[in-house]
Amino acid sequence: MPKKAKKIEDLLFKPETFWERASQQEIHLAMDFCDDYKQFLNEVKTERQVIIESIKLAKKEGFKEVSLDQDLGKNRKLIFVNRAKALVMVDLGEHNLNNGVKILLAHVDAPHLDLKVRPLYEDSGIAYFKPHYYGGIKKYHWPTTPLAMSGTVVLKNGQEIEINIGSKKDESVFLISDLLPHLEKERLDKPFDKAIEAEELNIIVGSIPVTGKKTQDRVKLAVLAWLYEHYRIKEVDLLAADIRFVPAYEARDIGLDKSMIGGYGQDDRVCVYTTLRAFLASKNQGVKVLYLADKEEIGSVGTTGAESLWLENVMDYLLKQTKSSISLYDLFRKSWAISADVTAAFDPDYKSAYDKNNSAELGKGAVIEKYLGYKGKYMTVDAEPKYLRHLMDLFDKKRVVWQTGHLGKVDQGGGSTIAVYLANRNLEVVDLGVPLLNMHAPYELSSKADVYSTYKGYRVFLEG
Ligand code: MN
Ligand code: MN
After folding, report:
1. How far, in Å, is the centroid of ligand 2 from the Cα of 237?
2. Cα–ligand 1 centroid distance for 109 (angstroms)
3. Which DSSP string corresponds to 143-172?
4. Closest by Cα among 288, 311, 290 to 300
């Protein structure tokens, strides 16, 4: 029998903003939550710092670091760390793994400038570090952006040195110079992507030469003398070091109404922070897992990327230690996951790059992304209709403000997320995250409404 709708307007899907839908009390909660988030952004500028800070927050909630080489004992709240760049947190509650687990996965890395193997040189009285950029940057963003230096150096005696310069107000920052507009004629004839070449992104680190020496490169020598004096580092030690430069900007409120946040590395630290808080706050309905992986921006490869078999290693350990009776394959098959990553918010200044109807908008909440990929859905994970239905209904029931999104127009570009690497393990997975303006720029913009709504979405997923 055909059935007519009672109210035809109800047939429409019309996402509204969080600001219109949430109670005053919830808006306050969102603002407070985002104050903590800004603080987190200011503490963490590198992958390693994200891991350290996340462990610190988890330990306050009773989590303990566990080694795969030791027995679990009575521990139920566990942290596994891989090479200080990736971690898995597990809250077993009172369960074994026979019914599968719920996984939140976010990535800790963000576009930045790594140093080349032999980075230090001098030219015309200025000492430079030569970088190799990491991830998808727009090169013209980086000259004249104040930079902080952060890294790990292992000395010959085995001592590990941590370097952090430029994130505190009284410390020096570093800079890549740009050409003045008066002399730019030659550059203006170049195509946009060639206007600034990778090899022109050189970081200024000093300009006072050593005195009393007849050698060349006396400024370079002075920089080495400084590094040795402060960190016992010689030039050869830089070869094996892991040193990177990141924007030194502080995370701040944006707008007269303070409704937004500007900060570096929000892709994907906004999802790191919101998944972490959701993971720590949620009540156990089963085994929950938080996986923070590295190397997403360069393809999720390597030991600490989401493709790494380290996840299998941890899960295999847990199956044995909890005396679960299912196989690793069955564990993945029975598990559910959210790939927690940011997406593009519709930008009214660049309308032609987006399909407005299929784009996320700032302030309209957590973004469910059914699929990503590019061209003919290349590298796409298509979330299953049943799983999507489940999440949409759950969010509506728990009053999570949500919307849908997609990365721009078809054939305009596109992208993929770490959802792929979970889906390849035969897990049910969907992308849920925060929409950003100017993603991958040194200073990215998010809406507090979306940050809070996404946190709530992750929490509801773990509890639902
Ligand atoms: Mn991302
Ligand atoms: Mn990214």
Report:
1. 30
2. 8
3. TT--EEEEEEEE-TTS-EEEEEESSSTTS-
4. 311
Residues 17 and 132 in one domain: no
Q: What pTM was estimated for this model as a whole? A: 0.96
Measured in Å, residue 268 CA sits from the centre of ligand 1 at 5
Going from the Cα of 374 to the center of ligand 1, the distance in angstroms, rounded, reads: 15
CB 107 within 8 A of CB 305: no
Eight-state DSSP code of residue 425: T
Burial class of 417 by CB neighbour count within 10 A (0 to 12, 13 to 18, 19+): buried
CATH no. for residue 448? 3.40.630.10
The encoded tokens of residue 458 equal: 């992750």
Half-sphere exposure of residue 101, counting CA atoms within 13 Å on the CB side?
32
- The string of pLDDT tens digits covering residues 324-344 is 999 999 999 999 999 999 999
Instruction: Identify the domain boundary among 190, 213, 247.
Output: 247
- Number of structural domains (the chain) is 2
Question: How far is the centre of ligand 2, averaged over its atoms, from the C-alpha of 74 (Å)?
Answer: 38
**Do 200 and 334 fall into the same domain?**
no
What spacing in Å lies between the alpha carbon of 137 and ligand 2's midpoint?
9
Cα gap 33→321, rounded to integer Å:
36
- CA of residue 271 to ligand 1 center, whole Å: 9
Ligand nearest the Cα of residue 111 is: 2
Instruction: Give the CATH number for residue 219.
Output: 2.30.250.10
CA of 440 to the centre of ligand 2 (A): 6
Note residues around ion ligand 2 (Cβ under 5 angstroms): 267
Residue type, 9: E
| pLDDT per position as a tens digit, 56-83 | 999 999 999 999 999 999 999 999 999 9
Q: Please tell me whether residues 130 and 147 are part of one structural domain.
A: yes
